Amino acid sequence: MNEDAFDIVVVGGGHAGCEAALAAARLVGSSTRLGARVALVTIRADTIAQMSCNPAIGGLAKGQMVREIDALGGQMARTTDATALQYRLLNRSKGPAVRSPRAQCDRHAYARAMQETLRGQTGLEIIEDVACDIETAGDRVAAVRCESGRRLATRAAIVTTGTFLRGVLHVGTKMWPGGRIGEPAAENLSAGLARLGLVLGRLKTGTPPRVDGRTLDYAHMQEQPPDPDPVRFSFGWPDGPFPNVSCWITETTPEVHELIRANLDRAPLYTGQIRSTGPRYCPSLETKIVRFADRRRHQVFLEPEGRDTPVVYCNGLSTSLPEDVQDRVVHGIPGMERAAILRYGYAIEYDFVPPTQIQPTLETKAVRGLYLAGQINGTSGYEEAAGQGLLAGINAARALQGRPPIVLGRDQAYLGVLVDDLVTKGTEEPYRMFTSLAEYRLVLRHDNADRRLTPVGREVGLVADEAWRRLEAKEREIAETRALLRRVRVEGRTLEDLLRRPDVTWESLAADVPDLAALVISPEAREQVVIEAKYAGYLVRQSAQIERARKMEDRLIPPELDYAAVTHLRTEAREKLARVRPRSMGQAARIAGIGPSDLAVLMIHLKR
Question: I want to staple 5 with a disulfide (CB 3.0 to 4.6 A). Which of 153, 340, 419, 551 is the partner?
Answer without folding.
Answer: 153
